[in-house]
Amino acid sequence: MYRINENYLKLPGSYLFSNIGKKVAAFSEAHPEAPIIRMGIGDVTQPIVPAIVEALHKAVDEMGHAETFHGYAPDQGYEFLRTAIAKNDYQARGCDISADEIFVSDGAKCDSGNIQEIFGPDVKIAVCDPVYPVYVDTNAMAGRTGTYDARTETWSNVVYMPCTEATGFSPELPKETPDLIYLCFPNNPTGAVLTKDQLQKWVDYANREGAVIIYDAAYEVYITEENVPHTIFECEGARTCAIELRSFSKNAGFTGLRLGATIIPKDLKCGETTLHSLWARRHGTKYNGAPYIVQRAGEAVYSDAARAQLKEQIEYYQKNARTIYQGLKDAGYSVSGAVNSPYIWLKTPDQMTSWEFFDFLLEKANVVGTPGSGFGPSGEGYFRLTAFGTYENTVEAIERIKRI
Ligand SMILES: *Cc1c(COP(=O)(O)O)cnc(C)c1O
Asked: How much is the pTM?
């Protein structure tokens, strides 16, 4: 008789977005006329820009002719895309990353979930609290996180780094030394960032303690402040302690096209073994690459035409973020995020729990957001709104919130 991977049974149900869906559906049924505005889910809404659509069309046509047809992609991704990433995202910022240190994938969610496979079964992970749930759940599936305590909503073998008002929504160096540290900045869900000096402290810490930082840079393009690093490789010494995850989802609207990349410097070694060689082995064995047409679309992201079009698109979302931030502030809310992020993180008023505020907002303003408690225990009493909607809806939602 076979057995299942029982680690899966230890996972708490992922109720967050299904609970939100159910509550919204029930409310709509009771109030069919209610003009609901959704500011909950972190998905973009603006279409793929014309310069990228053009590159897609061209690549599709190439696939239809024997002379220009492309089958399986190279294991690490096409050279044209890896070179474009290395040049534009790293070398242009003065970061020493070469094209052969880049692994193209179909998105940062898979990479952030899969990367734990190349580490030992008993490594200890540290995560921010609140956190993007993928980091913890995938380590739980691999049996690394111990037992789950439903009361405290924490795993026995995970180092949690609370990010609250008291810490300026950034993590503090943990007391207990972890092996793997997951950092995501600009952060989902809080929208917080680390300055270059702050991130340098983490790099120094990881090098000193022999830990690896998994750095999720999915929201890098939303950074507006000068002293905030766009990649961990801006920090000295990151080549010996960091892996970076990149995504084309939030900077170019590829949530439905699917494209990402993992950067593993060849200086990152455990004894004599490079992590680069392990990830190369994994990629070669388990993965057959992002589609040719999508990799061509990814290359086009760096063209002058696409850059100009994307700049406008990102500015559109940033304007929404500022509108929400300022509107809530004017209404007396305590808010953070937004400045370098499409996320606005607000403190619920009158000691409401995150879910109480969810119901309150849905009923009184017909606005849907995401309860902070869904991202971890330290998210309780907070709430996330996203800037990914239309400007008109964003303005309307804030007007309604101001009126309640
Ligand atoms: C949206 C998001 C990603 C991107 O995932 P893709 O699989 O590339 O779409 C990665 N990390 C975080 C924290 C995100 O919120």
From this structure: 0.97
pLDDT value at position 13? 80
CA–CA separation, 114 and 193 (whole Å) = 25
With CA atoms as reference, report the closest residue to 60 among 297, 274, 284, 247. 297
Query: 73-115 pLDDT, tens per residue?
Result: 999 999 999 999 999 999 999 999 999 999 999 999 999 999 9
Alpha-helical regions (H) of 124-255? 134-141, 196-209, 249-252
Per-residue pLDDT of 162-171, as tens digits, reads 999 999 999 9
Give 266-304 pLDDT, tens digit per residue.
999 999 999 999 999 999 999 999 999 999 999 999 999
Q: How far is CA 339 from the centre of its chain?
A: 16
- pLDDT tens, residue by residue, 123-157: 999 999 999 999 999 999 999 999 999 999 999 99
Polymer length of the chain? 404
- Confidence category of residue 18, pLDDT binned at 50, 70, 90: confident
Query: Best substitution site from 188, 257, 317, 386 to test ligand 1's pocket, by max atoms within 8 Å of Cβ?
Result: 188
Between the CA of 132 and the centroid of ligand 1 the distance, in Å, is 9
Nearest to 342 by CA among 214, 249, 219: 219
In this structure, the strands spanning 242-247 and 212-216 are parallel
| Contact (CB, 8 A) for 192 and 168 | yes
The answer to whether 205 and 177 have CB atoms below 8 angstroms apart is no
Could you give the dihedral angle defined by the CA atoms of residues 297, 41, 222 and 139, in that order, rounded to the nearest 10 degrees?
A: -80
What mean pLDDT value characterizes the chain?
97
| Rounded Cα gap, residues 157 and 148, in angstroms | 9
pLDDT of residue 198: 98
Sign of CA dihedral 271, 272, 276, 278: negative
**Ligand 1: does its nearest atom lie under 6 Å from the Cβ of 190?**
no
Alpha-carbon distances, residue 219 vs 132, 192, 363, 391 (angstroms): 13, 11, 31, 20
Q: At what angle do helices 391-403 and 354-365 cross, to 10 degrees?
A: 100
Six token digits for residue 17: 């977005």
Mutate to test the pocket of ligand 1, among 41, 111, 137, 249 (most ligand atoms within 8 A of CB): 249
- Which region holds residue 57: left if phi is over 0, alpha if psi is between -120 and 50, else beta? alpha
What tokens does 398 get? 């804030």
